Each structure stands twice: as structure tokens, then as C-alpha cells.
Amino acid sequence: MNLKNIKNAVVGRFVPFLTWLPELKDKNILRADIIAGITVAMVLIPQSMAYANLANLPPEYGLFAAFLPPMIAALFGSSRQLATGPVAVVSLMTALAIAPLTNDPVEFVTYAILLAFMVGVVQVTLGMLRLGVLVNFLSHPVVLGFTNAAAIIIATSQLGKLFGVSVEKDPHEMHFTGVWNTIVAAVQYIHWPTFFMAVLAFAIMIFTKRKNKRLPYVLLAVVITTLLSLVTGFHSERKINVTQLNDEVMRTHIANYFSNKEKVNHIDQQIKINSTEIKKLTSATLSSTAGQQKNRKTLRNLKNKHDDWQIDREKLVKINSALLNNQIKHIKFGEIDSKSKTKETASFAEDSDSLRSSFSSHGWKISGIYLNDKGKKELLLVAGGSVVGEIKAGLPSFALPQFNLGIMGTLFTMAIMISLIGFMEAISIAKAMASRTRQRLDPNQELVGQGIANISGSMFSSYPVSGSFSRSAVNIDSGAITGFSSVVTTIVVTITLLFLTPLLYHLPTATLAAVIMIAVFGLVNVSSIKHAWLANRNDGIVAVTTFALTLIYAPHLEKGIVIGVSLSLILFLLRTMTPRVVFLSRNIDGELREAKAFDLDICDNIAVLRFEGSLYFANTTYMEDMVQKAIANSPDLKYFIIDGVSINSMDATGEELLRELSRRLNGIGITLIFARFKKPILEMLENTHFISVHGRELFFRKIDLALAYAWEKLGDKHEDSCPLGNKHFKLKQEMENAKPTQESKADSNAG
Fold it and tell me: Mind telling me which residue stretches traverse the membrane in this protein (predicted)?
């Protein structure tokens, strides 16, 4: 390798952006990238907030994920047009990974950032070790089934925001239990203005997309619904003290809620102390034999207490969940009675204000319930629909993720899943675009680029990101030529974070739900599952099974993937355990064909077997059985030819089988002949001395040479009558030609 090639390899590996950076001297390329980058940003900004919503994160964290990762992925990846950032499937998997760990919003954000770092480390490690091929274990049918199921799960998760209802979800319940509860709540408590906003957003996006795909249809929906929300007073909110409620029943419910919450906090403290004691006692028991019996008894008592506290905690959480969802949050209020003549914003702390509850479909409703800084119980009341609210202006500050080994251990499996799913999504898009632009794509370099984007993003408050189907399509359709378009996208997001976030306050969350649903509708592709079924029944089974189990096990999406991958591997092994094994004979066209399929005569003295697959430990028994069966059915068999043209590889067990067949067949007077074996296999057989032991004269490059050898040994002009011989085939051809055709029969009948 010369110096120039070494330089190109180093640049492509560590600083791939240097390959396209000089192209920006061309003003046409620069202009095209700037236009494409701005266009993608118009889609990315609203989508990022929507996907943050899907990930159960505040909307600004979607913007943080759209800030640095698009540029970093473009600089260090190998695809020029891949648009990286928040995506639907990865956002959902992020939410599902963290939901069992905490309900605290601050901890949720902390763990999401940590997860991004872990995903990045996994991706960079795999890329540097050139292990991008691991994504091949996610076969096409598995991806099809998972993607279709994930799209349905994502869409149904937005129903609450679509109808303007809120249902508290138990992290341990199945996804569709929560969906059913949402639908039941929507029937009773649907907020029509919210539903109208969602329908309007859908209409704008669908109509605009059909009219002109180049128009920023997502941005148009966001702008129009935000302006409408501002002008119509779509959303209002205020805080009140619980003592301002006139309804004694409501006060009792709220008092019970806080009482239960205090009990849960107390139990959590006890569990924490108890866990520390268990760890200490376990360590002491293992390190010392003295007093082990006493320690074990104490340890058992502590564990029993731990289990009892967990049961009590779960009961209290369920009671509070029922109180909040079935009693407190669904109560709506009429007008606020105020004796104070001050402005409404000043009346929050006025004890004279009071609220009367009613079950009217209008008025105020309780959005949140908490203790304020002074320890007083407060309610957050909202009227109208839900909006994004205040987004802090400014760029995210640099900070390392908060490393917690316990949490990292819990998240590790999902980090691997997200790494592979995210990369699979990114590389499939990148490959499609590379075929259009005829650019060279390095999957391992793309894996490194995605990993660095996630690692660097986690240091600026980003959650996991990946390549986006929709935004990459917008990028290439807008004329992007180099990765600089993603740099422009980052610049536009930076300007938005610095100056434009106040404009997003009145953006309805129903619009974000509509944005998510429009994005995932494109992921639903039932026809592809049907096509997989028609192409190969096993692939169809894998796709349908993955689809069904992902839906059934939701929100535990990893189970659907693991079972799908396992099933595809099992079916693959079963398929390779019983490969096609066919016996050949001479067809009317002079070629050797499958005797059974073409209804051909077979020779009593010579058998020609073609094994279609790699010969390895899992299928040697099957091969042996097929040979034994052929011998049993042909008592006059003298020569057995194995056609190795379809055997691509062979392991030690396969070589041992050939050795055993040679010995066994030789013992019963049958000569084993090998034809058309490939060079690597012949080299292996040479290295193991099988060729020299068996007889070099019994290996042939062509089947006809092997047949000629057998005919010569059989003598008595055996070739003339053998169904495998050319002379026999010519005789059959003459007989076939002598048969009257249908037309000649018709002519003779007419005559």
C-alpha cells in the first residue's frame, strides 16, 4: 500500500469529513447544502419536540437532541445525506427503558442522558472492532415485524394527547391496557378543542404533503395551530391552595393522596436502609464462618421485611393512582369565585378565593398536585387544552452524564437493543441513499459516527438519537450533496434555542401527537410482511411472530426482538440441518437434472447425489441417512458420485463423514467418487490427507469425467444403456422426435 492509500484510509477512518469539505468551494454545492440544511431544520425542530414528548421528556430535550448530534454524525459518519437526530422508535424505546426505574422527572432526564452515552459507547466499540455485521442478526423479517408493531404502539400511545385526556399508567401494565383505559376516559371526558387541534394539524400536514412534498408541512401545521392556540385562548393555567376548595369530599381525597405519598416516601427510606443492611450482612456472612447461622436468620428476616414493604408500597401507589385518575383529575370546576378585586394572577395566594367542583365539560380541571416550597398543598389548574408551555431559552451546558453503576447495569440490555435498532435504521436509510448517489458507504464508519454523535450529545443533555427516514428523504430531495447540510441544520437549531423558544409556548401538544402519528404511519407496511410470507414461509412466520409478540409484550419491546431473532436463528438452523439433497439423471435437453422433479429414469449401477448446502456438524446425519437410503433402494449400485458444486464450506465433522462414507461404501463394494468440489474444500481434504488415503484418481473437476470413469470400470458398453449417458439421452431424444405432435394428429384425423 502506497503513502497516498494509507493517507486516504486514515482520513476516511478518523476524519471522514475532510473528503467532502473541499467540495464546498463550489458555490453551487454550498448553496444546495444550505437550502437542504434549513429545510431539514424546519422539519426537525417540531419533530424533535414531539419525539421528546414520546420519550416522556420535556420538549426542550428534543431540541437538545437536535442540537449537536446531526452535525457530529455528519462529520464522522460515512453517509453524506443521512439526517441524524431524535426518531420515533428510539424515543419510544428510551421511554420504555427508563419507565420501570423512576417516576421522578429529574431522574428520568438523568437516566435518558446516561442511556445516550451508553448507546454511543456500544456503537463506537462495535464500529472500531469492525463488528457492524452483528446487525445482520436482525434479519429483514424481524425488522419488518418489529417496525410495524412499534409504529402501532407509538401511534396508540398518543391517543391521550389526541383526545385531551390523561390516564396515569402503571409501569408494569401492558401497553394496550393503558390504551383501553385511555379510550374509556376519552368517551367520558374528551376535550373537543384539543381533538379539533389534532384534526386540523392532520389535515394541514396531509393536504400540504399531497400538494407539494417540498413544502415544510410539519412546520406549517405547527405555526398555524400555535397561532390559533394563542388567538383563541386555547390554554390557561393557575395555582391555588387546597384550602381554597369548597368541596369537602375533594379535600378528603387530596388529604388521603398526600398521606399515602408520605407513607410511600417513608417506606422508600426504610427500603433503602434495609437494602444497605442486607448488603453489609451478606458480605459479613460470606467473609466469616463465625455466627453464620445467626446472620442467615437475621438476613432472612430483613428480606421478608423488604418484601412486605414492597407489597405495601405497591398497594399505596395503586390507591394513589386510582385517586388521582378516577377522582381528582377528572373533577372539573366552574367559575372562580373571588372576593378580591386584584388581578387573577395575583389571586393565586388569596385565601378568599374558592372553587366549586362540577362535572361540567367546561371550566378548570386539576393538572397537578404537589407541595410548594413552604410545604403547603397546592393544585395546578388548567383550562382548555394542553400546550408545550415554557421552554428555557439558551444552549445546553456541557456536563458529563451522572454515572451510576446500578442503573447502568439495569439499562445495559436496552442500550444494546437501542444501539442495534438505531444503527439498523440508520444504515438501511444510508444504503438506500448511497445507491441513489453512487457514493461509497462504510457501515462500520457509520456506526462510529452514530456512536460519537450519541456520546457527544449526552454531554449536552441529549437522549439517544439515530438516522431518520423522513428527514433523510427531505435532505436528499432538497438537494443535499455533502454532510455540510447537517451542519447548517445544527446552526438553525442553535438559533432556535437561543432566540425562538418563547414562540413555542402556545404550541398544542395535540399537534405534536399528530406530528408523531403522521411520522409513524409511514413505518406501517403490511404488504412487506405479506411479501415475506409469499417469498418464504419461514420468513413470514418470523415476521408475523415478531409483530404479534412485540404488540403483546409492549411496553417490553426487547422481548419481541429477542424472540424474533431467536426464532429466525432456530428456523435457519433447521433449514440448514435438512438441506436439499437431490439425485440426478440425464434430461431430454442433455443436462443433468433432478430425477424426481423431471420424472427421469435412474441408473441401477451409478448414483449421482448433489448436496445443496454447507456440510457441517448439524446436517451430516441427514446426509448420511440420504446416502444409506439410496444404497438400500439400489441393490446393484456400484458407483456413488457426490456432486460438490453446491457445497460452499465444510467443517471437521463434514470431513469425518466423507471419511466414514468412503470406508463404509468400500466395505460393501461401492466406489465413492467426488466431482466438482470447490478449491477451499479440496485444500482442506488435502491437508487432512483424505484425498491421498481415498485415492486421488477418484476426484474429478466435472461430473461427465466421473461418469466416464465409472462407465469404463463397468465395461460392456454400459454407457449405451445408462440413463446418465449421452447415447441413452440421444436415443430418447430420437424417440421423442418420432412421436406425432398434437397438430399432426389433428391433421391425420381430419384426413
Answer: 34-55, 61-78, 85-102, 108-129, 141-159, 179-208, 215-234, 405-430, 479-499, 505-526, 538-554, 560-577
